[in-house]
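>> received
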Amino acid sequence: MNGASGNEARAGSEADSAISRTNPETATDRVCARHTAANALGKAGSGDVFVLSHEAAERAVTESRREILDVLATKAVGSQAELARRLDRDPGNVGRDIDVLVDEGVVTWIQNGRAKKPVLTHDTYVVEPLVGTMPETVQE
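>> returned
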């Protein structure tokens, strides 16, 4: 499942880029906090952790995209077309949903013969807190 190495919060999503343009200092602090939380959760036994900004989660986690994530987490899927069949959805709509998940760093594509196979990039996904700080047990 791991497409990335180590326990890292990725800062390059589209939502993070928008945050950086509006308030670079706050964006840097938030990226650092997500990175710290991902590392602490990984060390606590949560595996390879990805901490999404709440903006990225708002964009990435819709009901239909959640269904995609559930299938990718529990079933072997060989292609976008196979995933669409399993979900009983139009392959084009599934592809557009996967593209959003790719943009936010949640899914990546792996070449599988002539087809592209969508896979999760990490073991565990967490959304950053909207306000406040991380609990004492999660902080390093």
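>> The CA atoms of residues 101 and 107 lie 5 Å apart.
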